């Protein structure tokens, strides 16, 4: 099972681009990388998912290098409302018979 | 939209009490998960289920049991609550394989305090 490592916390200012990197050195061939966002007193919610190269949606981009041993979540022009904890999760999306284990997450604080 | 509903947002129980945490999802998901979340420790997997009546231990199953009698419902049971089980409990469901993307949908959480 791929273990993930993320920075514990990051600080940014409104309008800046924020990049959060996740390390997953023993990622398996069938594993996908998924990022979640969690606000206080709420459950995490899905942000973006990818397998390789680059994925972009309306809220974020996900960059995955060729060796797939790490990934970077990119949040363009953050606002105060992006203050949250961000988790990266690595797992095989083809089967639910697996332990989906989250890391400790990255606490992002966006200041005015 | 997928909805995952946890029966209680806040509970206060006494040491030794039996505690039931209920989770219901409305999207016919086969897979359901129970996590607990504590400051500095992230989300830790307690149990998961991949079908009715099927369950597997996660990383911290001690002191907990689960029940999945119907597809939409996954219950977490603390047979004899202890103070070290004071925590936020999060339920999630998802669909994998050809029918889904593996995205997890979480409930709002149940904050349990054991006195």
Secondary-structure blueprint:
The complex is a heterodimer of chains A (112) and B (115).
Chain A: E1 9-13, E2 18-23, E3 31-38, E4 45-50, E5 53-56, E6 61-64, E7 70-75, E8 84-92, E9 106-111
Parallel strand pairs in A: 1-9
Antiparallel strand pairs in A: 2-7, 3-4, 3-8, 5-6, 6-7, 8-9
Chain B: E1 4-6, E2 10-13, E3 19-21, E4 23-25, E5 31-38, E6 42-51, E7 54-57, E8 65-70, E9 73-78, E10 87-94, E11 104-106, E12 110-114
Parallel strand pairs in B: 2-12
Antiparallel strand pairs in B: 1-4, 3-9, 5-6, 5-10, 6-7, 8-9, 10-11, 10-12
Describe this structure in words.
The complex is a heterodimer of chains A (about 110) and B (about 120). Chain A is mostly beta strands and about 110 residues long. Chain A is built from no helices and 9 strands. Chain A has strands at about 10-15, 20-25, 30-40, 45-50, 55, 60-65, 70-75, 85-90, 105-110. In chain A, the strands form 2 sheets. Chain A has a 5-stranded mixed β-sheet, with no helix packed on it. By secondary structure, chain B is mainly β. Chain B is globular, with a radius of gyration of 13 Å. The model of chain B has no long low-confidence stretch (mean pLDDT about 95).
Helix content of chain A: under 10%
Assembly state here? heterodimer
Rg of chain A, nearest Å? 14 Å
Distance between the termini of chain B: 37 Å
* Greatest chain-chain contact: A-B, 26 and 32 residues
Query: What characteristic shape of chain B results from the CA principal axes?
Result: globular
Query: What is the helix tally of chain A?
Result: 0
Q: Cα distance, first to last residue of chain A?
A: 39 Å
Shape by Cα distribution of chain A: globular
Low-confidence stretches of chain A: none
Helix content of chain B: under 10%
Low-confidence stretches of chain B: none
Keyword list:
heterodimer; A: 112 residues; mainly beta; five-stranded mixed beta sheet; 48% strand; globular; B: 115 residues; seven-stranded mixed beta sheet; three-stranded antiparallel beta sheet; 12 strands; 55% strand
